[in-house]
Amino acid sequence: MSGLAEPPARRRLAGLIAAAGIALGACTVGPDYRRPDYAAPPAFRGVVAGDPAGPVSMGDLVWWQVFQDDALQSLIRTALAENYDLRIAATRILDARALVTVARSFQFPAADASGSALYERIQGDRAPTQAKDRFVPVGGLDLSYELDLWGRFRRGTEAARADLLATEAARRFVVTTLVSDVATAYFQLRSLDLELDISRRTLASRQDSLRLVKLRQTGGVAAMIDVRQAEILVATAAGNIPATERQIEQTENAISVLLGRRPEGVPRGRALDDITVPPTVPPGLPSALLERRPDIRQAEQQLAAATALIGVATSDFFPRVLLTGAVGAGGLNINGSWFGPQGVFSVLPQVTLPIFNTGRVAAGVDSAEARAQAALFQYEQTIIAAFRDVSDALVEHRKRRETREELEILAIAARDATRLANIRYKGGVSSYLEVQDSERQLFDAELGLARSRRDELLAVVRLYKALGGGWQES
């Protein structure tokens, strides 16, 4: 009988081989990633009765809806376009995207073109059958393909894609941080502007009082101690101005760096007193925080990548099949006579089976599993830290508002006390010491109120960032 199979039998054999190849190709070792279950609390700690509840969250708002100052919005837009940290984060995304292409390329055959042209000439004695001149030009195509029987390359591609998503989430976190940093620096700058204005107004008022006291002392109505006390008030207000001006310029420099520029002046918008603060802010549902916070999404994708790498390490337990081949064409010129054209075709299957490696493969799997476990702990820790950020920001926003309301009452009382103390002094009822005390209390109260308004705005910024807002760019 002939050694060749009949056509139906040959087709059945080819079908079985193809089915076996598909079955082997569909085998992927290692665990599949599933998002870990995490029981979110029913509500954020720090939410009190009367606060808005429901699925709507302040973190869902785009940043230009939260910060209603045109100058601040312009600064944020410039920072989003020019900040160097954000540019670096964008280039890391390009790097991660390229690495996905690199990882995926191993799933497909590789082909390399090659060419050579050997020329030999023998001088002197040679064998009778040996040619004096020989020229052998050859060109061909080298092929190689490793069968991904156990999903080694598919898991590698899965890990690379998860790294890409983690890098994109990292960029969003940079955006969130950048928006909050620009807003924080801007509100600090406007607070310093208000403090400088208060110091200058106070200095002008105290200089007028000093002239009045000197006139009264010259006329014999006031004592020299009154003059010295008035001079102390003037020097106190004057000494506060250079320190505030220094902080203003340094804050402008910090904002310039956030904008990706050399240190320069910063345009102003609304005064600190005119920037509105929401009385209450809706935090939304705690479960939605897992999707909105970029750092949580980054930690989750890092966990997914570490899980996929367990499969890559596990695949080293199994055989690896590599197919190599070459297709070429060339000719042969011997002593002026051509032979050819000639064709070459070769196929070389190669199987590698691990037998003994001193536990290296098992240790690689243990290492991958340990890294995945560490990524899981990092993911859970990031979630806990996020809930703490929100709770801290909620209580800070509420208590900063209460402090500001009390300081407003204090400032009103201090202004009236200063007015009455000056009236009493001019009427000769009290000494200038009473005016000095009331002036000092008024100055401190006005500066404290300005800083309290700043702190309330900064609490809003921190709450917005804690809720995962700010990365929306368009």
Topology:
Blueprint: H1 7-25, H2 63-66, H3 70-82, H4 84-105, E1 110-121, E2 133-147, H5 152-218, H6 224-258, H7 289-292, H8 294-314, E3 320-334, E4 337-352, H9 360-426, H10 432-466
Antiparallel strand pairs: 1-2, 2-3, 3-4
Helix pairs in contact: 3-5, 4-5, 5-6, 5-8, 5-10, 6-10, 8-9, 9-10
What do you see in this structure?
With 474 residues, the chain is an alpha+beta fold. The protein is 61% helix and 12% strand. The chain has helices spanning 7-25, 63-66, 70-82, 84-105, 152-218, 224-258, 289-292, 294-314, 360-426, 432-466, and strands at 110-121, 133-147, 320-334, 337-352. Strands 1-2-3-4 form a four-stranded antiparallel β-sheet, with no helix packed on it.
How many separate helices?
10
Mean pLDDT: 87
Strand proportion: 5-15%
Low-confidence stretches: 1-6, 13-25
Number of strands: 4
Secondary-structure-based class equals: alpha+beta
Morphology call: elongated
Question: Termini separation (Å)?
Answer: 76 Å
Q: Looking across the biggest beta sheet, what order are the strands in?
A: 1-2-3-4
